[in-house]
Amino acid sequence: MAGNLIARSIHDLSAGAWFGGSLMGAIGLNGATGDAKDPAERTRLSSLGWKKWAPVQTSAFAAHIVSGLAVIWENKERMAKQDGVTRLSIYKTVVTLAGAAVTLYAGMAGKKVDELAGQGASGATEPRPGASSELQSAQKQLKMLQWAIPVFAGWVIVLGAKHGEMQRPGNVAKGLAR
After folding, report:
1. pLDDT of 110-158, one tens digit each?
2. What backbone torsions phi and psi does residue 124 show, to the nearest 5 degrees?
């Protein structure tokens, strides 16, 4: 029981870190760096902040996957017997993996923006007039991706809450009766 509590806690906390960190970066970090006086500093400082966050986010995501496997293992009997639990688990896994892919792609777009930071920008993800089409494209992609990440992470958290609701005694009984 204590092992499941620890695994579930890590699973929820790591999803929270993915959600909160990505949202803070898109709003706080990018917003603050957009106020830098030097246009070249706007993308450079944002890139530095995201680079500092990347190992934490990667660790949180790895912990989320490992703890998720532990939770699945602990609940394998319920998954086999209670209607809808396996289906929701598969759905949540697909959403998690899609969010991971979006997060990885955002990192690649961010690397491109960082490489071209010397051109300057209106903001971390806002191109300035006269910037190369390569920088403009990378910034536009990054802006969209950085807003998609908290959507996926939030979706994972909501699906986790749904899993929790399915464990209420009345819902377990309904799921076993089917």
Report:
1. 999 999 999 989 988 999 988 999 999 999 999 999 999 999 999 999 9
2. -55, -35
Q: Which range marks the domain in which residue 84 is found?
A: 2-177
CA–CA distance, 144 with 163 (Å, rounded to integer): 29
User: For the chain, how many structural domains are there in total?
Assistant: 1
Structure tokens at 65: 């996957």
pLDDT digits 0-9 by tens, 5-45: 899 999 999 999 999 999 999 999 999 998 999 988 999 99
Which pLDDT band, with edges at 50, 70 and 90, does 93 fall under?
very high
DSSP string for residues in 110-158: HHHHHHTGGG--SBTTBPPTT--HHHHHHHHHHHHHHHHHHHHHHHHHH
Query: Would you give the distance in Å from CA 134 to the centre of its chain?
Result: 25
